[in-house]
Amino acid sequence: MPDVGEGLTEAEILKWYVKPGDTVTDGQVVCEVETAKAAVELPIPFDGVVHEIRFPEGETVDVGTAIISVDTTPGAPDEAPAAAAAPAAAVPAEAAPAAPAEPAKRQAVLVGYGVSEASTVRRARRTPGPVPAQPKGRPAAELNGHGATGATGLAAPAGDRPLAKPPVRKLAKDLGIDLSSVVPSGRDGTITREDVHAALAPAPAEPAVVAAPAAAAASPAVVAEPGAREIRTPIKGVRKATAQAMVASAFTAPHVTEFVTFDITRTMKLVQELKLDPAFVGRKVSPLLLVAKALLVAIRRNPEVNATWDEAGQEIVRKDYVNLGIAAATPRGLIVPNIKDAGAKTLPELATALGELVATAREGKTSPAQMQGGTVTITNVGVFGVDTGTPILNPGESAILAFGAVKDMPWVHKGKVKVRKVTTLALSFDHRVVDGELGSKVLADVAALLEQPKRLLTWA
Fold it and tell me: Does residue 180 sit in helix, strand or coil?
């Protein structure tokens, strides 16, 4: 299982495209895997015949574990065991350890440049043992800050980088927890979210033991039968990563949400006109396109909203570029790919980029790179008939705009009550970065631009 460059420790095999006996060529896609970021197709890096598929579809495999063996010299006689140890047919190559004097070699992996052999060998499982001697003045019960012990009973040794998945590292960073002081309880000494929270929480007091009344003890307990009509779905891959990110965001960034309801009739008319414009032939034109353009103009007028909170550096980092994220619901869960440098694109270019982004997401082909580096996000809840919502920030961003349903409603227009197209926008923002005045200005600008779309020209 290759390291796809995201710092992830495992991936699930979604689909095999080959079977034992099939001939493969260099660059041929042999399987599709799903990481916590996205689904990725893996090509084979050499020619040969598939000898063995080592893991079935649906199996979660650690990075660095061989998942397929390929015979690169089909028809050749078997060599002696000593010769068989030479580099050859497995992915990754299962060669004998290099001599100590040689530099660490890199494995033949399915994608990318690979990782060094030493880096893909998981640390040996630690076993419970006696607590090592502690420095004077520090009792052994303070190993993880409050005396709790995990499955291993030991925190990571000094200088040894603790094992933890990226969402867990992000959580620890947000909470100010040093992972080297956390006692791991996960498989192979991996630190879990629960371990991080345990390191933060104070040690619980011993509960008092109270004897139950005799009458209560004599009452038969009511035990519900297991639900025969329940469906249990394992939480993994994109859905698991999304859940972890949303929890981390909701409990680390102070969210504030503001709302505005307005007449969007002129923008809806402009959408119909643009569909007939020669500049948009072959491009998808929708209200979301003009909402995206309006948000980009509002950010240009209020650039401080396009920023992030750096907890480690205790700084607010303003971005002079806008990577516009679009929340997309897919069968694998919610993902937020983004349009790189969206603020520099013309309206036709933005339409093309938006159409490609949505199509790729629906096909489940969004790459990890397309979900990195977002600065602000739009979520279009109106497509589900929802008026509005209070969206949670995408981790690492300070603002997210929810676009609600467009409905025919009675509205005062030019002094008379008429039926107009009306919608509601909701802007959630990180109150550490964006104060109420700035958030209100951004939301008011977006609404004003969509109420009078000619301002997209005069304000841009």
Answer: helix
